[in-house]
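Example record

The entry below shows one chain as it appears in the dataset: sequence first, then structure tokens.
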Amino acid sequence: MAEFVEGTERLTGIRPAVSVFGSARAVEGSHYFALAEQTSRLLSDAGFAVISGGGPGIMRAANKGAFAGRSPAVGLNIELPREQHANEYQDISLRFEHFFARKVMFVKFATAYVVLPGGYGTLDELFEALTLVQTNKIRRMPIILMHAPFWRGLLDWFRESLVAEDMIDAEDVELVQVIDEPQKVVDAIFTFYEKRGFEPSPAEREVLLNL
């Protein structure tokens, strides 16, 4: 309960925000690291706070890019047996013991999800968002995958197995989009909200209260 209360109090004023995910194992100087850093810098300069898991790899790249920009860099840190240690690029830093409380914060304050290549944790966050949008537990938002070659097999499996065997509807595949260029990610988020604005409607706010 304390984690929910502190997280909500600390993050309420940061909207609009974008949650950025990706591997903790990506090293500085790699293509994935550079892609996350550049995208997050552009998002920050465009007025979006950037929320990451607060650790190394792509999380560090996202916070580093945002930290150099105009908007807050947020880290939602968690204690793990390995890989997780807080990076130094955080204007707002929260620490969680419980995954479920941390995951709520990623979703509750996000205007969009940007997902770079990663492992089980990254996939967990991606499918959490897809499930919540599909079931109308949160409002629809841009869910953007970066670096098409990494995601091609997964998206093909969506179509060839999940849709073909009627596990999901064909339009559910359209809940995600693949964009490889950082500026186009920013543009896509603005385009999505162009006619509706970033603030949730009263009905959407009620849904978020019950998340």
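Notes for this example: The beta strands are 17-21, 49-52, 73-78, 92-96, 112-115, 143-145, 177-178. The domain at 2-209 is CATH 3.40.50.450 (Rossmann fold).
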